[in-house]
């Protein structure tokens, strides 16, 4: 039975069976996470920056890395994107996303794939969405490098949880060995490492401050075009400032 033919009670049963949900979606009047600790999330956040994405995306391709239940992928399809591909490593999230897209009558492709494996797509996208993923990765800068190298054609919509100072120090391009005061400043780029858990989540590995987020984006070859919301950036792909790009650790075949 297609999503359009499901009754509200049938949708409610499927939502319950596929839970718990992190994205609170409205599926024909059925909310998927009505008691979310962040409120009507991610819609409450989306409303604060949705205006930086073109209203019409006809002819454009979109890649949503870490798509979860597909909120942003579906918003891009609603704006007319020709092709939308959502990636996640969690099969439960992908099952939620496929069901939500079906109920909403939106043709979106979803695949199980890590941010580290985007080179396998052999395709570049007009818009890459990388929302709420960076701090869940043990190798965050590698992921940005791989996105720049393999899948970003033009725009990157980026978001990361941030902690620490919100102001950004003016940083010199070089300091001599004996100059160390900058490391004690709260506005110097800092990436805080979490050895065990944060917010009961063992996949929260790193938490940057604002200066660090912006420096990492620039270092990976993304020029910040807009900063409409505290944690959200719209970037354009540019040339990397350093010659070094992504590394490719060998995988064991045993």
TrEMBL record:
<dbReference type="InterPro" id="IPR027554">
    <property type="entry name" value="Meth_Rta_06860"/>
</dbReference>
<keyword id="KW-0489">Methyltransferase</keyword>
<protein>
    <submittedName>
        <fullName>TIGR04290 family methyltransferase</fullName>
    </submittedName>
</protein>
<dbReference type="GO" id="GO:0008168">
    <property type="term" value="F:methyltransferase activity"/>
</dbReference>
<keyword id="KW-0808">Transferase</keyword>
<dbReference type="Pfam" id="PF08003">
    <property type="entry name" value="Methyltransf_9"/>
</dbReference>
<dbReference type="InterPro" id="IPR029063">
    <property type="entry name" value="SAM-dependent_MTases_sf"/>
</dbReference>
<dbReference type="InterPro" id="IPR027555">
    <property type="entry name" value="Mo5U34_MeTrfas-like"/>
</dbReference>
<dbReference type="GO" id="GO:0032259">
    <property type="term" value="P:methylation"/>
</dbReference>
């Amino acid at each position: 039975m297609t999503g359009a033919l499901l009754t509200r009670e049938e949708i409610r049963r499927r939502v319950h069976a596929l839970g718990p949900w992190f994205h609170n979606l409205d599926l024909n009047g059925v909310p998927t996470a009505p008691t979310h600790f962040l409120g009507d999330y991610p819609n409450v956040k989306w409303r604060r920056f949705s205006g930086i994405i073109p209203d019409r995306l006809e002819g454009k391709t979109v890649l949503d890395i870490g798509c979860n239940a597909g909120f942003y992928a579906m918003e891009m399809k609603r704006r007319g994107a020709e092709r939308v591909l959502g990636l996640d490593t969690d099969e439960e999230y992908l099952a939620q996303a496929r069901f939500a897209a079906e109920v909403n009558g939106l043709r979106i492709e979803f695949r199980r794939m890590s941010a580290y494996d985007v080179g396998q797509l052999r395709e570049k996208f007009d818009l890459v969405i990388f929302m709420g993923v960076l701090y869940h990765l043990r190798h965050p800068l590698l992921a940005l490098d791989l996105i720049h190298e393999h899948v970003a054609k033009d725009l990157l919509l980026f978001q990361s949880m941030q902690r620490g100072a919100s102001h950004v120090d003016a940083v010199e391009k070089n300091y001599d060995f004996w100059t160390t005061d900058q490391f004690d400043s709260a506005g110097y780029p800092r990436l805080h490492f979490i050895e065990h858990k944060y917010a009961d989540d063992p996949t929260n590995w790193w938490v940057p401050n604002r200066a660090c987020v912006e420096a990492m984006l620039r270092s990976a070859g993304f020029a910040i075009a807009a900063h409409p919301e505290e944690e959200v950036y719209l970037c354009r792909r540019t040339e990397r400032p350093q010659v070094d790009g992504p590394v490719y650790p060998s995988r064991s075949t045993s």
